[in-house]
Amino acid sequence: MFGKKKKKGDEAEEAEGASPPAEAAEGAEGEAPAKKKMSGKTLVLFIILPAILVLGGGGAAAFLLLKPSGEQHAEAETGDHGKAKGGGGHGAEGAPGEPVPGPNGTMITYGEGETVFVALPEMLVNITGPDGRPAYLKLKLTLEAPNEEVVTALGEHIPRVSDQFNGFLRELRTDDLSGSAGAYRLRLELLRRVNLVIAPLQINAVLIEEMLVQ
After folding, report:
1. If exposure means fewest CB atoms within 10 Å of the residue's CB, which of 3, 27, 79, 107 is most exposed?
2. Average pLDDT of the residues in 107-131
3. CB atoms closer than 10 angstroms to residue 120
4. CB atoms within 10 A of CB 134
5. pLDDT (average), residues 144-159
6. Contact, 71 vs 61, CB < 8 A?
7. DSSP letters of 22-64?
């Protein structure tokens, strides 16, 4: 009898002693999902990401996936502003070789480097023809400026420049304009007068685009 009770007590103790291994088993089961989760992250980093790099998106796709969204937004804004402003050498002022309207009826064309061409409004003046008969001189002139500073000065003084030109041209005779020598003297006289108006600034040359005597 006593032997049987002792055996039952031993079995109870053994049963109670067996419970901790059950808790350990539960702990092991709790750790198993964690290990599975870690293995999932490892799979993304070391298998899926290299696959993205190899496929069509290449390095750019991985860069966009890993880059913070704030930086992407900032770069997008920078790109938009850059397009809006334009990357040309003269920006909003106009591309080289493309005329843009200037002050007082002028047209401005940007050349190579800092050179700027300012086309004046067409001029029509009375001059003296053969035997003292009246004639008409039609002129289209372009002023070659070395930089923007001179162009600004010209824009402010176009009325004075036109007045100087008209006063000089009305004193001419048709014989004064004959031949290449006559055109050369005309350019020199007009250059001297425009430089007097904008002094101490200077333009490089006066270009005759069209000259017609009637």
Report:
1. 3
2. 92
3. 24
4. 9
5. 95
6. no
7. HHHHHHHHHHHHHHHHHHHHHHIIIIIHHHHHHSTTHHHHHHH
Q: Is it the case that residue 122 has pLDDT exceeding 50?
A: yes
Token readout for 30 is 């709790």
Higher per-residue confidence, 171 vs 13: 171
* pTM listed for this prediction: 0.56
Q: Which residues contact 158 (CB under 8 A, 6 or more apart)?
A: 103, 104, 105, 106, 120
State whether the Cα torsion 151-155-161-166 is positive or negative. positive
End-to-end CA distance of the chain: 150
Tens-digit pLDDT profile for residues 9-49:
444 444 444 444 444 444 444 444 444 444 555 554 555 55
